[in-house]
Design a protein that fits this description.
Two copies of one chain form a homodimer. Chain A is mainly α and about 260 residues long. Chain A folds into two domains: about 80 residues, Homeodomain-like (Arc Repressor Mutant, subunit A), CATH 1.10.10.60; about 110 residues, Tetracycline Repressor, domain 2 (Orthogonal Bundle). Chain A is about 60% helix and about 0% strand. In chain A, helix 2 crosses helix 3, helix 2 packs across helix 4 and helix 5 packs parallel to helix 7. Chains A and B meet through helix 1, helix 6, helix 7, helix 8 and helix 9 of A and helix 1, helix 6, helix 7, helix 8 and helix 9 of B. Chain B binds a DNA duplex (30 and 30 nucleotides) through loops.
DNA sequence: ACTTATTAGTATAAGCAATACACAGTTCTA
DNA sequence: TAGAACTGTGTATTGCTTATACTAATAAGT
């Protein structure tokens, strides 16, 4: 809200924004009927119900029964609103510290928690954050993940690096699944049908000479076909495998480091 | 262009779009002075020079010296244009097959190649594809990556899963670096200065009680401080470490599988 | 009572993707 | 060879978008 220092970095601004360090309680003027919190909550409501593309200042204002411009009294810009939405949506509780020191289990829990969060607020995977976590909720999740990574034996810098990777993998997998599901639904078919359709289309352009491995993939029916009953066949289905390989990688690295006295 | 089948899946549509299977040479009417290729090339030019947010139908048309609506004769929608841009921008040559069978080196080359591609067209990391690769260039890269992964001993499905992860990691890392650099530049500071600024801000809200690991991270100066000379200190700097851990994970998994007769 | 800060509303600018239609150019057919 | 059929580009326009500038009403401090 305050514009005191234009030279402040975006990341530093985010911290103030998300911790409410930028608002001083008004001493004069009418009592605000609207609030920043209400705006953000309404925006999340719209995003949950109709997707992030439905979130416009007009739409959120209409939801609240106010004019478009009144929102700008509580939020500097739509971008700020999105940043606030993201931290607010992350208000779930990250996994507690493992008593048994099983960092692998701890990180699998963390990834599943992140997966759940994104599934509860699908729009969250489309809001590209432009800075490391800065808000109370974001930092809580970051702390929970870093804690387990450090417990594995990585140093703090390495842990941060791997946490960035884990969250990127989870987020991007959910994103792809959502987009593919959405695309499938828009033609009135299921994800599996759509994948089969895609597979069929690829066969028209994929030759064994130019694309031997992809050709093999298509022949082996990796895409589509019939997934196990009750399963979607989507990307997130096999997320566990990839996550476990990353954890394998951490484990073998730490073990090797310990061996060489690292 | 043709709208024959509305029930066709998005992924199948992408294949036809990207391989030009949807255009039949016109038999009547004026010779087209504009072409799909020219439109896409102009759009890429704008995106390269001014970022993806500068790419509008108006802007691209202006670049070409035509009216906005003339573009729609060559491209069905802006979304289609973005899909075409992405495959076209991927026209670099992916690493050739390793003669020595060193799949780890092959995959590191692949990741570096992808990194280079994104650096050459920074906007590419902001264009969220909503389907697996479908175009000639996308498939070429996919083939090159899958080939090395299969060489590692993974089956084709597992390879696809890991390739998705590798490309997500590279893309997201570049994205974060670009956003942070952009944010830093907008306040006239460097990335390191900005990170230090962020670190400083975090100290105001991070306590050792609530966020012990983050607190440690800040004390150890993981963010910002002075990177090695000539280095930016950005996220992509340490990308190699994460990639190697993922490769470690693949290696240890394959080895274990082989041991159990997998 | 009067000044001053604050909230919400109004008016509006500048830009966005996309539809509908007019018109001119080109080729195939009768 | 005449004209129907079709195609490429331009014009007009709709209904969105974020955001700035300003007005009227409100409440607190002096």
């Amino acid at each position: 809200m305050t514009t005191e220092d234009e030279r402040k970095s975006r990341m530093a601004r985010d911290v103030e924004l998300l911790w409410g360090l930028d608002t001083t309680p008004a001493r004069r003027g009418p009592k605000p009927r609207l609030s920043r919190e209400a705006v953000v909550r309404a925006a999340i409501g719209v995003a949950d119900a109709e997707g992030i593309e439905a979130v416009s200042m007009q739409r959120v204002a209409r939801e609240l029964g106010y004019t478009t411009m009144s929102l700008y009294r509580h939020v500097d810009s739509k971008e700020d609103m999105l940043v606030l939405m993201l931290d607010t949506a992350t208000d779930g509780v990250p996994p507690a510290p493992r008593e048994d020191g099983d960092w692998r289990a701890g990180l699998e829990e963390w990834c599943n928690g992140a997966l759940e969060m994104h599934r509860a607020h699908p729009w969250s995977v489309f809001v590209a954050f432009s800075a490391p976590p800065s808000g109370p909720n974001g930092l809580r999740w970051m702390e929970a993940g870093l804690r387990e990574l450090v417990a594995s034996g990585l140093d703090v810098g390495e842990s941060l690096q791997m946490l960035t990777i884990l969250s990127a993998v989870v987020r991007d997998t959910v994103r792809l699944e959502i987009e593919m599901t959405r695309a499938a639904q828009s033609t009135g078919s299921t994800l599996v049908e759509s994948e089969n359709d895609y597979s069929q289309s690829l066969r028209r352009v994929v030759t064994a000479e130019r694309f031997p491995t992809i050709d093999r993939m298509l022949r082996e029916g990796v895409l589509g076909e019939a997934p196990a009953p009750g399963r979607t066949g989507g990307p997130a289905e096999e997320l566990d495998f990839g996550i476990r390989r990353i954890l394998d990688g951490i484990e073998s690295y730490v073990r090797a480091e310990r061996g060489t006295g690292g």
